[in-house]
Amino acid sequence: MNEGEGRVNAPSTVRRGALGRLARNPLGLVSAAVLALIALAVLLAPVLVSQPPDASDLRHAFAGPSGGHPLGFDSAGRDIWSRLLYGGRTTLSGALISLAVSLLLGVPSGLVAGYRGGRLDGLASWIANLVMALPAMIVLLASRAVLGSTVWVLMVVLGVLVAPAFFRLVRGIVVQVRGELYVDAARVSGLGDARIIARHVLVVVRGPIIIQIALVAGIAIGLQAGLEFLGIGSGDTPTWGAMLNEAFQNIQRSPALMLWPGLALGLTSGALVLLAGALRDVLEDRTGGGSGRARRRAVPVPAAAPVPADTVPADPADAASADPAAAAAEDHGPAGRATLLSVRGLAVGYRLPDGSDREVVHDVDLDVAPGEIVGLVGESGSGKTQTAFSVLGILPEGGRILRGGILLDGQEVVGLPERRRRALRGGMVAYVPQEPMSNLDPAFTVGSQLVEPIRVRLGLSRKQAVQRALDLLSLVEIADPERTFRSYPHQISGGMAQRVLIAGAMSCEPRLLIADEPTTALDVRVQAEILELLRRLQREHELGVLLVTHNLGVVADLCDRVAVMREGRIVETGTAEQVLHAPADPYTRTLLEAVLDHVPAREPWQPRKVVVP
Ligand SMILES: Nc1ncnc2c1ncn2[C@@H]1O[C@H](COP(=O)(O)OP(=O)(O)OP(=O)(O)O)[C@@H](O)[C@H]1O
């Protein structure tokens, strides 16, 4: 029954930490050690030097190394070792300030712009492009003239100039991630934007951000040194760039003075670049030994305490819709049963560039009663998914409901604020998607994906949520729930993944389940098992099910009633028996004829005899 159990490699999904993998990467280890040594030396400067960096004694000008002065003296008789360590403090702190500013500006704006899209994204991208187009050196020179020569202020300006690098990196990744089905699944499960970003999006961008930090730190150090070398800094604090400047002025007399600040800059920048490369290998797992990508977390499915519609605070819209709801249930409820879902005159459109709408669903009426399975069938592009997404309130960007109403358990949901819509999704109504694997975030274990929405929606403790997730895995007939709980999506089969998604959908004890081609991506044997599971859950939990499918075999097998869609309209509705045996609409007949049941089977293929002359 539990197909694919054998595919679970081992319960011990070894999840070595990134630090451990970095320690096994020779380049990473050496560069991290060099950086750590440099950081330690500049931090311990007061105890490592024998005189302050600005203490000058002209009698020692250009003098070589001596006791307590391992690198000798500069042109003003100052201790080079002391200036190198204290200069490192200024240089590295300056780089940290630039980094902090660029991270603070670039990362949150990239996350929000990428995730929300639309005008906000357009505006943020425009600003980022504008800042990137500015010549950094010219802006820094102008800033010095206007804001003064304090190195810290220049570092803040540098941070602003570098921020677009983080913005573009993060935004680009988020735009890709937001289209992932597991993000849609998290949305459908009722998780809010902030939680989705924190859980599913940040985890994807953190690796590239860490790599970028190493690169940008190197750039900031280089630029700052460049400014100081040009003599643009304040000159009252020792920095590696200022040391290079002084050394350059005395290059004829003592070329060795260039060596130490040059070495410090070269070592630090080089180590940062190498560390960035090693981090890239480690975080993207190029060195083998683990499926870094696959190990990215996973997300998921719904979970939530049923949030009865009537517990949501009333607003005037509800009062206005109360009567129509009751009327709809009375007038249109199938066979006199109270409707769970009642769609009336639904029209969905997509905004065109000229401001008009392209209508893709026209005046759809549809009902689902408790304990009833209604099939929504039709050829590809007929509007089934748009209808289902309208009920869930997750139409893609640009799509909107143009007309009509949707009553969920008597409550009008069209026009309901997103917060209240979210309370219904993953609560009273749950969703089972078409492609189970794509709806699980590969970076999280199955258990983690189930537990998070359960905790959010049911307000359970972690321990209780884990127990509930295990119970749900048993409910969907997974033989070894604990093992599956610990597995990553790449370690389970498609059929098991679909069971996991159904478990997630059931976690909120929904009353209406919307299943969009739930078996299409599965092989025939697993399809039958999943259909049987849905049937059992529907029976035992009195679920209303809206089953979106193009498979008339599934309809015959599972559905009580059928609505046939064509070009955005419902062309025929009736009991499964009526529609399949005595279709009234010519389009339904065409659909049925397309199922080759009545066509005589072809002769088995026979190899042709090849006559060899
Ligand atoms: N994001 C979108 N922007 C514009 N039009 C869209 C968008 N998504 C869907 N449509 C249009 O809506 C119509 C109905 O699509 P829908 O996805 O509901 O079809 P479907 O019956 O579910 O097909 P399938 O079985 O292939 O999923 C199609 O003509 C499609 O082009």
From TrEMBL:
Task: Give me the segments passing through the membrane.
Answer: 26-49, 92-114, 126-145, 151-170, 201-223, 258-279
Subcellular compartments: Cell membrane; Membrane
Could you tell me which InterPro entries the record lists for this protein? AAA+_ATPase (IPR003593), ABC_Ni/Peptide_Import (IPR050388), ABC_transporter-like_ATP-bd (IPR003439), ABC_transporter-like_CS (IPR017871), MetI-like (IPR000515), MetI-like_sf (IPR035906), OppC_N (IPR025966), P-loop_NTPase (IPR027417)
Gene Ontology molecular function: any one: ATP binding
One of this protein's GO BP terms?
transmembrane transport
Q: Which residues form the ABC transporter domain?
A: 343-592
Among SUPFAM superfamilies, the record links this protein to: MetI-like (SSF161098), P-loop containing nucleoside triphosphate hydrolases (SSF52540)
Q: Provide GO CC annotations from the record.
A: plasma membrane
Q: Where is the signal peptide?
A: none
**Membrane topology field:** Multi-pass membrane protein; Peripheral membrane protein
Region Disordered, residue ranges: 286-333
- Keywords, in A-Z order: ATP-binding, Cell inner membrane, Cell membrane, Membrane, Nucleotide-binding, Translocase, Transmembrane, Transmembrane helix, Transport
Ranges for domain ABC transmembrane type-1 = 88-276
Compositional bias of kind Low complexity: 299-328
Q: Which family does it belong to?
A: Belongs to the binding-protein-dependent transport system permease family.
Name the chain's protein.
ABC transporter
Species whose genome carries this gene: Planobispora takensis
